[in-house]
Amino acid sequence: KHLPKSSTVCLVRMLSTRRSLALAKDSFLSLRNLQARFVSTEYYDPPFSPLSKPAKPAKKTKKTEQDQSPEPMTSPTAPVTSDLPFDFRYSYSETNPAIKPIGFREPKRFSPFGPGRLDRNWTGTCAPASLESDQRQWAVVRDKILGEALTEEEVAELVERYRHSDCSRQINLGKGGVTHNMIDDIHNHWKKAEAVRIKCLGVPTLDMDNICHHLEEKSGGKIVYRNINILVLYRGRNYDPKSRPTIPLMLWKPYPPIYPRLVKNVADGLTFEETKEMRNRGLHAPALMKLTRNGVYVNVVGRVREEFETEEVVRLDCTHVGMSDCKRIGVKLKDLVPCVPILFKDEQIILWRGKKN
């Protein structure tokens, strides 16, 4: 307290300077801690991460006279050539080549394989195979890959390994049926597994024989197990992943063409009044079955056939199934039962057995 006034002022200034430096240091440390908190690996946020610098191109080494041979030129845009002897369709099991469309929803030049990626022309429904392809040669190659028939012990071992629901080698088959890209998925599974488990749901399960036929024909494998809607597809003894067939992929789902109307205003063999009366009877009749969305319909055809032995009209309750699936079911039942669909209303399917000869 005995210091002069000038010394007191200097001391105060020194203390204030030290205090401001301490505050600046604390704020700097707090900012560093905050930065480390959000930039650390624990709180790393990819959407806001900094862009990585582009890698520098490798330096080109000088080629010797022996290495200066011309390299083969490969064009990435060259069309893919496939020797498979069948027409490429979006779905093989859910389309009938015998029914010709009456119109198309998009021009035929829009190929789902992409422009210039396939050496086949797209007709609006399929990419036809070349005339040089031979079905008999494909059958010979398939038999060679399958090799000798499996013994009962080998079949039992395969089935026990792949039939369970926790199998990692599984493909789900939905309302699209056996699609073109599914064939490529099957071969991808066959790279590391002898067989693949296929779980079928929805409209295709109305005709499981058709599914099995197309799976074996298009993939070249053999179905060794079939239980309701579960299949096990075996690749063959002599299968080689390196020599698998070339399967060009569809880049998008093509628009389905326009087909003739399924339900006519007047059913064949009936008058307008009789058709109307038959529809009213069907709407007020008890439902034979209640179908669920993406269900298993393996017993529907048999139940409808049995009901037609005593009844003339059958109603199927398809609530929550969807109108598009209802029409797909009607198309299949028309050929499998056979019968005549006379009404689709409020997700109800009315079937008439037709005139008995």
From TrEMBL:
Keywords: mRNA processing, mRNA splicing, Repeat, Ribonucleoprotein, RNA-binding, Transit peptide. Pfam families: CRS1_YhbY. It comes from the Eukaryota. PROSITE patterns: CRM. Coiled coil: none annotated. InterPro entries: CAF1P_plant, RNA-binding_CRM, YhbY-like_sf. SMART domains: CRS1_YhbY. Residues 49-82 are annotated as: Disordered. Gene3D superfamilies: YhbY-like. Residues 67-80 have a biased composition (Polar residues). The keyword RNA-binding applies. The keyword Metal-binding does not apply. Signal peptide: none annotated. Residues 148-246, 268-357 form the CRM domain. This is CRM domain-containing protein. The lineage of its organism: Eukaryota, Viridiplantae, Streptophyta, Embryophyta, Tracheophyta.
